[in-house]
């Protein structure tokens, strides 16, 4: 390490970052602590070298072609869980980040960080799942890297994937395009991935097996674009769940979001598990779902196209953009009251992606 000293007191930043001089798990949760870490540490450190668009995928113009570029790192524990593995999660997660700006994925890089002592059979299983997922998504694995760390300094396998794709000419999809009146649609059941990983990790048993929803969503996005609708915003609600994603969109666009809890597609077993564990299903991660903001005139045909696709069969309208309470998400409860849907501070379920 160099002798450069860092004066924490000089940071202009709210709690809890200033009160936590060391990294804690909440900094990786996709909530308020993650946002503070990026805004008050990384962006100032990067200076003018940073492109502060802060989306899940960057849009880059090259020779008249719009390309999407994204990278993500996967540290899920356990490596294998109901419905998936860290391998297919790594492919689908990056493919979906590209899809959320309207891109068809072309190629991925894959970098493996392996812990000394991990069984080769376990690594082969993960690698095979990754290759199978890439074939299913129609994306090429074109470059990669492998590193090994000392025993006790990893957790079996960590994977980084970066991806590029070509953005559909019909797409202008970004959080800033949300406007009052937009209809908010979710493509299916909420909270499934997080509960699936947690049930496996903690040995919880339910009446039925809860399997992760990990899946590539670019085909569903193509079907939505084929309707001719102007898709304002698409996001996949991963870390921090639907709550974090909607808060980020509301803040970026300066709009309010009003939800109706009666219309949330939450499976009974997910609702029961969250009730048992004191979790909010809206803050639980998803890995095969998307949120769409569309004009009211386009909502019916977009919803019909989603429901006609296997990955959107349970799509539902869950709310609207409103001019009131900009930057805030509120939900009408089943009892007729209203509650604020906050941005999570840290992470309810660490290491789920």
TrEMBL record:
- Per its UniProt record, what Pfam families does this chain match? AIRS (PF00586), AIRS_C (PF02769)
**Domain Peptidase A2: from-to ranges:** 221-256
Q: Which InterPro entries match?
A: HypE (IPR011854), Peptidase_A2_cat (IPR001995), PurM-like_C_dom (IPR010918), PurM-like_C_sf (IPR036676), PurM-like_N (IPR016188), PurM-like_N_sf (IPR036921)
PROSITE patterns hit by this protein:
ASP_PROT_RETROV
Source taxon at top rank: Bacteria
Q: Which biological processes are named by the entry's GO terms?
A: protein maturation; proteolysis
What GO molecular function annotations does the UniProt record carry, in alphabetical order?
A: aspartic-type endopeptidase activity
PANTHER family, A to Z: CARBAMOYL DEHYDRATASE HYPE (PTHR30303:SF0), HYDROGENASE ISOENZYMES FORMATION PROTEIN HYPE (PTHR30303)
What is the similarity comment for this entry?
Belongs to the HypE family.
Its recorded name reads Hydrogenase expression/formation protein HypE
